[in-house]
Fold:
Amino acid sequence: MKSIQELQAIKEKMQKMINTRETTDDSDIRIVVGMATCGIAAGARPVLNKLSDEVLSRGLHHVKVIQTGCIGMCRYEPIVEVFVPGQEKVTYIHMTPEKAVRVINDHIVNGNVVQEYTVNKE
Amino acid sequence: MRELSLHILDIAKNSVKAKAKLVEIAVCADSAADRLSIVIRDDGCGMSPEFLRRVQDPFTTTRTTRKVGMGIPLFKQAAESAGGSFSISSELGKGTEVRAEFQLSHIDRMPLGDLGSTMILLISGSPDIDFRLDFQVDERSFSLDTREVKQTLEGVPVDLPEVQAFLREMLTENIREVSGGKPL
Structure:
């Protein structure tokens, strides 16, 4: 069994880091995942997990993964929206954990929208 | 939905929307009695007796964008098709309690699934709300309370990716141990 006492070490490490970096600012990239009944039932939870894992393991401090409610196109769930400041919103549909990795890699890191996963392809 | 933990995520989000300050989730399996119970309790705005009567109907929702709400009816169906029962009690201004019971060994009982992920998504999605999980399998148990977590963190945000990663690891490991190596 793990105990929350182990958080102590993380707390100390993070206290040092928070002082050196802004926690949020306008240049952050936002990745928004639809997590209403429709999204959850279609498999949004593992997609969101994978996105968070990738952001953490690649140290993408300027990227925020956020949950939202129903985006309004339930038949396309799981839906992931990417907001890069200064650019148009990109809507990815029928997402899977595997597709999520590619979106992080191609779009978030390298700046190339993965056209074949977007809603415009439908 | 393929997992009970997805239903828990969905129902607990209603508590978040009801402006709860504390959401308590209890999952309790008793193999001698062949029962599995799931209780989700909040101190949110609650429901009027009139709304409470209608809330198990799929054509009831608080959403204004459309006329259907499937969360509660789907959870109810999951319980009732697995030799169990379902109930909601609520009081305006006090909060709501959703209770689902299952026959543990029933062939149509959904697996519990990834309860740790459900908790992490709730905690990271609403860092200002407190969540408590009580997970019990026979005589073994494990609890996580974000009030204790936040006290330990002393102002470090609970939704930092590093903190979330630790909590997820802790939940996964402890839930696995309490389950006795055999997922519920």
Q: What stands out?
A: Strands of chain A lie at 29-34, 63-68, 80-83, 90-92.
